[in-house]
Batch of 2 targets.
Target 1
Amino acid sequence: MAAMLKTLFSSSIRADVLSLLLNSPEEQFYIREIAELVRKNPSGVKRELDNLEQMGIVISDRVANLKYFRANKESPLFSELKNLITKSLGLPGALKAVLRASGAKTGFLYGPYAEGDSVETVDLFVIGAISSLTKELKDIERRFDKGINCTMMDEDEYNLKKKKRDANLRKILSGKRIKLIGRP
């Protein structure tokens, strides 16, 4: 077991790949997609995916000429690794991984949590995400025992509100924020 743990956390690429896959266990990704989401070299990502597959932590499926990878929820290490990743990344890290996997263009925390206050509910602003993000956010709420008040808009709506100098949007953008991905 100790040798497996040493092997498991021997690379930053592996940690990023694990974070992405374990925080989005229902999703499957192909190598270049993972490399783009974690902003790492595709050859390094492939090497780490192959290693994780040998350990039984991820599984793959071939569809046409693409090999898709996903977390192996049947692995005896799945829940422990997911908890370990969650604890090490904290709420912002878990949200960042889920937002990247969702295809969101921009995401940030704002409001009292971003100001440093201890709160029961955090405010999350997301631009360009898909609606399936809701399921992953519920999972994060449960893991961190915090509510997430999520405001989602597509890019066109965001740009229109920004151009019209929408009062609510201006208030959100003028306050302190914790950037997760992209730029508003």
Note: The chain has two domains: 2-78, 103-181.
Target 2
Amino acid sequence: MQTMTKKYRRRRSAELVVLGCALLANATTFAQADNAALAELPEFNAAPASLGGSPAGSGDEFRTLDTDIQDMKQLLLELNRDLFLLEEELLFPANTQVAIFVSMDVGEFFGLDSVQIKLDDKEVANYLYTAREVDALIRGGVHQLFLGNLKAGEHELVAIFTGAGPHSRDYRRGATIEFEKGIGPKYIELAISDHAQALQPEFVVKEWE
């Protein structure tokens, strides 16, 4: 019953998105047609000075039409967001969901280039970071590197970090964690920080409670 409900919600959301796109396209077409028709009228382009500009009421009509189009665009954005969340819920159910995040602190002894993720000896992610993305991580951002499904039980995660270490030398280090996937989503953080005493970067893999 729950599966049928999810399928209906997904189909209904998709139908609403298609309907909204059609309505928006029609509204835009009508607006363009009205503008073209009014442009052909002499009174619209060059109204007598005594009339003071465009025909009475035309400005209000355009404003109303523009407001309707903007409202339709906002509705489409909201429907698209709901559809994305519904699709994520269907593809990655909470009871099998695993998400892996990357965070970075300071970054004085390590310049991040890429992170590779292996789950149970299978590569599931390999991401190359830009300078802007690294800067965002240093400023406190968190990057979702992987989102997938795992069955309940024991699993092993291996993270390989590649970048520039102390004195700008090529640096490659790995971190491993064994964890148990139970009922409910599992969140794991790959934290990169500086070890001030050792003058070396530190890589820690930890589970979110």
Note: The chain has two domains: 2-91, 97-207.
